[in-house]
Design goal:
Structural class: alpha/beta
CATH architecture of the largest domain: 3-Layer(aba) Sandwich
Shape: globular
Strand content: 25-35%
CATH topology of the largest domain: Rossmann fold
Order of helices and strands: EEEHEEHEHHHHEHEHEEHH
Oligomer: single chain
Number of helices: 10
CATH superfamily of the largest domain: P-loop containing nucleotide triphosphate hydrolases
Radius of gyration: 18 Å
Largest sheet: 6 strands, mixed
Number of domains: 2
CATH class of the largest domain: Alpha Beta
Length: 241
């Protein structure tokens, strides 16, 4: 069993008067892709945002690479090598694709200072990023914006990628392209925590899986085992994979 890069132990999160997470237990093995599944409103996005410090855990402990980050500020957490792609992608629409990438490459003041070999690798994963390099990011299609959002997250080496529903609203051909990119990232040893509603996406990519319901993790284990157990799928998700 791989060691755990990220663990959540008994994590509770309140947002205003609402108690959203009720003691989340989650382990993300190093070098694997962990799928976080569950019905809408189960607490998946809140879990991601709590890990990043965007919402503060009111109870429990979050440990990343042996360090307690429960009370750390979001910039400190990002500085440890965690990248986050939110569901809304968070791109700067008025900036060009190039300017978005330069902002994400914290060590670069201009595009020429981005690691050239890494940039060419990103272009090989997402040719649209190179094609529209000098275009305003707001003019891109939904799929192209998603490619840019993931490209920004990997423009520098990261220990952990946290991605919220990367296939949402995308055409099947673009989803296949995204799957290929994540497979390459996995091959490079990048650890990924991914929220996804596309079940075929989850089956093809996931190593481990955690299923949430009502603010807690109700199942954790092998993605392959869940994909092969229709009765378990129905009980956890109300559907068959």
């Amino acid at each position: 069993m791989s060691d755990k890069l990220l663990t959540l132990s008994g994590v509770h999160t309140h947002i205003g008067a609402y108690h959203i997470l009720h003691g989340v237990e989650l382990a993300v093995p190093r070098g694997q892709l962990t799928m976080l599944l569950g019905r809408n409103g189960a607490g998946k996005t809140t879990t991601l945002r709590t890990i990043l410090g965007l919402w503060r855990a009111s109870q429990g402990r979050i440990v990343f690479d042996g360090q307690d980050i429960t009370q750390a500020a979001t910039p400190q957490i990002a500085g440890r090598g965690i990248a986050y792609v939110p569901e809304n992608m968070g791109i700067f629409a008025d900036l060009t694709v190039k300017e978005n990438m330069v902002l994400a490459a914290r060590g670069a003041k201009n595009a020429s200072q981005i690691d050239g070999e890494r940039l060419q690798w990103i272009f090989s994963l997402f040719p649209a990023v190179e094609k529209f390099w000098n275009h305003p990011a707001g003019k891109l299609s939904g799929g192209q914006k998603q490619m840019l959002a993931v490209s920004r997250a990997i423009v520098e080496p990261r220990e952990l990628l946290i991605i919220d529903e990367p296939s949402k609203g995308l055409a099947p051909a673009i989803i296949n392209n995204m799957i290929g990119a994540f497979e390459q990232l996995k091959a490079k040893g990048v650890t990924i925590l991914l929220v996804e509603q596309n079940i075929n996406f989850a089956k093809r990519l996931g190593d481990t899986v955690a299923v949430m319901d009502n603010g807690v993790v109700v199942h954790a284990g092998s993605m392959k085992e869940l994909a092969e157990d229709e009765e378990l799928q129905h009980s956890l998700l109300g559907l068959a994979l």
